[in-house]
Design goal:
The structure holds 2 protein chains of 2 kinds. Chain A is α/β, with parallel strands linked by helices. Chain A is about 45% helix and about 10% strand. Chain A is built from 9 helices and 6 strands; from the N terminus they run E-E-E-H-E-H-H-E-H-E-H-H-H-H-H. The termini of chain B are close together. Chain B has 16 helices and 17 strands. Classes of the chains: A alpha/beta, B alpha+beta. At the A-B interface, helix 2 and helix 3 of A face helix 11, helix 13, helix 14 and helix 15 of B.
Chain lengths: ~250, ~400
Amino acid sequence: MYFLFSGEGATDLGSGNSNAPVSEGDDYAPGPMALLVEQVARDQHGVSPLRENRCGLVPESQIKMRAKELSPAGKRMRLPGREVPRETRYFFQNARALARLAKERAEKRKEKIVAILFRDADGAASAGRGEWTDKHDSMLNGFQSESLESGVPMIPKPKSEAWLICALSNNATRQQGAKLEDRSGNDDSPKSLKGELQAILKKRDPKNPTVNRERLNDLIEDGSIHYKKICMPSFTTFCEDLAKAIGAE
Amino acid sequence: MWIKSIHVDNFKSLVDFHLDLAQFTCLIGLNGSGKSTVLQCLDFLGQLMRGDLKGWLERRDWEPNDLRSKLKHGTTIDFEVRIGLSESEGEVDEIRWEGKFNTAEMRCTEESLGTSQGSLYTVGNKFFDIKGAPKHPPNPGDQTLLTFAYQGSIMSQLIDSFLAEAKNKNETFSLFDIKKFLSGLHSLDLLSPELLRQRTSQSDGSLGLGGERLSAFLHEMEQGRREDLFKKLREVYPQLTDLSAKALRSGLKQLEIRESYGGKQLVTEARHINDGMLRLIAILADLQGDGGVAVFDEIENGINPELVEFLIDAFTSAKRQVVATTHSPMILNYLSDEDAKAGVMYLYKTSEGATRAVPFFSIPSLAEKLEVMGPGEAFVDTNLTQLADEIARMPKTETRDDVLPVQRRRGH
């Protein structure tokens, strides 16, 4: 089983060589979300994509290029209606692009591919609009429309900082977790999640206020951030989708 | 020449309103956001150069007071039009025409037009000054006393041969060229198939507000241009064998088409031509016209989806600059990303009710969406009623000079 990741940058699933279709091995610098995937996969399913070096990253630029090819001028429009809500197309389109890449690779290498697509629910393409459930379902629809059964939406609500804050707080309850999901994803708002994560990390080590990939990875590796402490519905759904994908034929 | 931007204050919902224009500008937005008002305003600016503002108001069934905004006090409509030039037209960057239209006097009581090389004319309350014009009678300011009444811009009243002499050194264009360009700014915002079917005697160089002068317009069109128009139409109506506007004894012109079905020639008069074809004839005919900017409302009306690509190609390759409104994601989806970024303008209203325009794909979430989908898909996927929040968070920019070089390269 091979894991194909695609995210938005270094501090989620990680970064790679943007010119290569897939970055793996030394070319791939995994981010904290990839380390969380590793924790869950190892603990619950007995597989270690990172440790066993059975994973790779598709840079966002590659996904965008493939996604754009899916929309030639005037063709194949998926019009919104009762069944297709607005503000979901971005998730659908990215999922289709990753699914195609995953299918191509699975065929070439004759192995099962689990494709994990990370997008913040309230990211650059949303600006606070649209429902999380619709975005999640749209991503699943995108995988399915390309006949990929092992696609996993990884969509923190509203963004990955909320999952990390939840894991770093002392025994957060389900209610507290759910409350975090109602926060704004806007980094410029006075009570932004980004600012709060920064403050938490500064409190832990006043000499080191930086929030970057290495720092977050260290916190996951030393167990300070553990997936079991993320009691948020969007994370639970991710774990369920991952289990289904790993179990899928 | 092409219009780079307009700035208008106090015209209906256009209060301190700025709009940058591309080779093909597509205005989108919710109902009531002010799209038609922008088209009316463009027509109004063209009419200032044509004069006869009273007649213009009558044709629209408006009162002078309808022109002003209900959102502010003041009897003048202030405007500024920036005109870009292709490299062959001169070395100056732009022509700037600005003025104040007084709705009580129905004329521009203040007006100026010029380039970085100097002023071509100015109009004050009692005097005017035109480049190269003899001063009569001489007065201390070296300006000419305003001794005649007029409507709109003073340019509407001055004779062509005189305007042709008014130019700056090293500039290839004269006031006549500028007037010809600006007075060609017509809006077909009331285009209707019923009016397109009418027989008319003279076009006066335009199709008329609702397209009622189409038959005369086609009759007066040069042979070459009419042939081009016919060739274009045949691309989508291959059965078409002729398009003509024949003169009747009464002097009226009647539009008719000939089609060939199974070797049989069928002649159809305008009153029996289908709405879609009539609209297409009108649009293509207008694109063949001179000067100015071709302005259309809801271009998708009566156009079957298979013709959309043809229509967009006609707009993006037209010699004239085009401004149109649309609600159709399909229209937008046939635009290239480059054209969509430069030309799709989103209109919305502020909480006070004033219309504002923003390049749709400069809105960060739309720019992101455009990276993975077509322009029409991004449009239709976006909840426009909630878009104002994001626009309010965007940094303000004064101009979009970044897109202008693209336009210049195309020679417009």
